[in-house]
Amino acid sequence: MGEKIAIVTDSTAYLPQAVIDKYEIHSVALSVIVDGQSYVEGKGIDENNFYSIANASKSFPTTSQPAPGDFIILYEKLRDKGFDTIISIHLSSGISGTYQNAVSAGNIVEGVQVVAYDSEIACMAMGMLVEKAAELVASGEKLEAILKQLDAMRDAMGAYFIVDDLNHLARGGRLSNAQAIIGSVLQIKPILHFEEKKIVLFEKIRTTEKSFSQD
Question: If residue 86 lies in a helix (H) or strand (E), which one and from where to where?
Fold first, then answer.
């Protein structure tokens, strides 16, 4: 009898619901804390209402990673459903402790092999890794082959993006204060990317329009 593999990710993958349903992808949710109130991503808060909630807030919104207990509950549930292996793919360990909590939970839960996987990136780029892993599971690939293909895909992947205000990333602990200060002083709209699991400046551009026109 072959491996029965489950795919787990977190709410920052932003996968379409159709993909989640098709491959039975499981997820743990991060939370957004606004004015002391915690909103579960994908339930109490999402891309449709985040900005209205944030704009009405008195304090800067922060995020909270899933606790190890959230992972333990899900991993045990999947084990009890008959899965013997779980591939748990999460946002970069350089900007969140989510991956490490998956590792910790995997070491606690007995009766199932948990392979925590650091995507070293975030958002839909990470979601592409999750979807690829789910496709490989559906096609009958074994764990070792799946991880090998994920490594190759991760190593070839990059994500470039811009933000309107670097200070938000700095306040959230995902960009150094020095980089944010430089950006603010020069009034630039920098292109950012992931390097060694962290968000860093890629190129300094003066305007948003020029950011999108770069080759």
Answer: strand 85-90
151: number of CA atoms within 13 Å, CB side? 7
Q: Which helix (H) or strand (E) holds 38?
A: strand 37-40
Residue 144 is predicted with a pLDDT of 97
**What averages of pLDDT result for each successive group of 10 residues across the chain (215 residues)?**
89 95 97 87 80 79 89 98 98 94 98 97 94 98 98 89 65 52 54 75 53 49
Return the pLDDT at 54: 74
Binning the chain into helix, strand and coil, the percentages to the nearest 5 are 40, 20, 35
Distance of CA 7 to the CA centre of its chain: 14
Neighbouring-strand partners of residue 162: 191
Residues ≥6 apart with Cβ < 8 Å to 20:
27
Write out the DSSP string of 144-202: HHHHHHHHHHHHH---EEE-S-HHHHHHTTSS-HHHHHHHHHHT---EEEEETTEEEEE
- Give CA–CA dist 207/186, Å, rounded: 11
Residue 74 to residue 70: CA distance in whole angstroms: 6
Task: Give the separation between CA 114 and CA 111, rounded to whole angstroms.
Answer: 10
Spatial distance between the Cα atoms of 91 and 110, rounded to a whole number of angstroms:
24
Decide: pTM greater than 0.70.
Answer: yes
Domains, the chain, in order of start with CATH, read: 5-30+65-156 (3.40.50.10170), 160-212 (3.30.1180.10)
